[in-house]
Design goal:
This protein is α/β, with parallel strands linked by helices and 494 residues long. It contains 17 helices and 14 strands. Among the domains are: 70 residues, no CATH class; 275 residues, TIM Barrel, CATH 3.20.20.70. Bound molecules: iron/sulfur cluster (2 copies).
Length: 494
Amino acid sequence: MKKKLRKVELYKFEINGHTLALDVKKSRVFRIEDELTSEVIDLLNDLTPEEITNTLADRYGRKQVFEVLKEMEKAKIITGEDQKEEVSPPSPAREITALCLNVTYDCNLRCKYCYYNDGNPFHGSKIHMSENVAKKAVDFLIKESEDKKNLLIDFFGGEPLLKFDLIKTVVKYAKVKAQQANKRVAFGITTNGTLLTKNVAKYLAENKIGVQISIDGNRVMHNRARVFRNGKGSYDRVILNARNLIPKGSPFARITVTHQDLQFMKAVKHLLHQGFNGVSVAPASGINRIWAINGDDFKQLEQEHDEAAKYFLEKMLKHHEFVPFYNFTLPLRIIYFRKKQRYPCGAGLFYLAVSPEGDLYPCHRFVGIKKFFLGNLSSPFKNNRRALFLNNYVESKADCRQCWARYLCGGQCPYWATETNGDIRRPNEGYCELQQYILKLSLMIFSQIHQKDKAIIEKLFDPRHQPYMLNPDLEKTENNTEGLSSDQEETTNR
Ligand code: SF4
Ligand code: SF4
């Protein structure tokens, strides 16, 4: 104990009656179950072990304090080595392994919060992707993925099923091309569900195409914004169509939560009850103040996530039922694998979007925004804008560098950041607070599950519940870190 004290970067917090500490750089989580341990952690920053012992001995006894310090040394909270901060940029895979094909700008719905309403000149226009552009995009993906084997193509729009024939052509073509190049290609589609007839559903299931349906809850919730051109709500059509797929395929539901109704849990429960394989909730963004989440809404969304966490834990611990709610399951995967997230997402790194004209953008949300144009299929990356995304790693940003959540978060969605603060590197504060809150809840859930029912953690990795929008190569390499062994998540209790 005489050696100079070096400690890992610990972040201690309380959430819903639990005290936890996160080893920030290694994503290890500790339950703090007594006051002495909690006080020792508070003093680690400023005092040596001797000074800590002297300070706390009167109240707790020297032996007790010594034991806690020893336990911390064993858990490598106190260490002989300095924990260095990453300073160099990561070497992100420059290969492109995932493409989002915007097969059309056209849509048969007029959702009131759609981001295309925010002055995007293409909204509802009849510009579709040609077969020639689509095939060129596949060739581009095969070439730009270099030696990477696992590829993903996501169909997006507008409403992509307006171009169902083109989708079938692309799937056929990409399978052949991938096979020739000794690669595997997976497919996904994000759809409003209105055109998901029995035939379409059969095709998607047969071709193992991951389906994400945008649906906002029950009839009242959904029809508030998701309407046809004539203003009529689309719920009845969508839910009927989703049932075409539910027995065979694996549709996921994506709920957009808006300023109009922040109580998303009712929607989550409704959609899980309908048989969806997983549900995620994302806040509506944009300049439309009637719909977009802003200011105090974030605080209310924290409360709603509290309710979600209670539901999640009760289902898992009391009923041994897994709840595929991605707002928690995705962070839980990161925590489980102790991944270090240095980027917010794959946009501009391994993932690009292709507009109907064949232009390249960092992701589907940036399509049509000139400032983020990255070239086209024949002449990609001629400008230097991709560097903006490659250099957008978490330690490089002033706001994120000091944030305890940085390696679980990876930084904010660059689209959100640019839309609210005009810069992909300047995260929106309200959204950060919500993100940090969700991460605290996820750490609490993880710690509870790990303490009470380790076996259920495995369910997080059941392929039936995996959203398709994951980079398969990235998953395989980065998840190859050590799994959780009994001494990797320690309890510093007494
Ligand atoms: S929560 Fe905000 S500040 Fe923290 S890492 Fe994420 S984006 Fe950066
Ligand atoms: S997180 Fe944001 S920038 Fe990244 S892919 Fe999603 S919408 Fe695009």
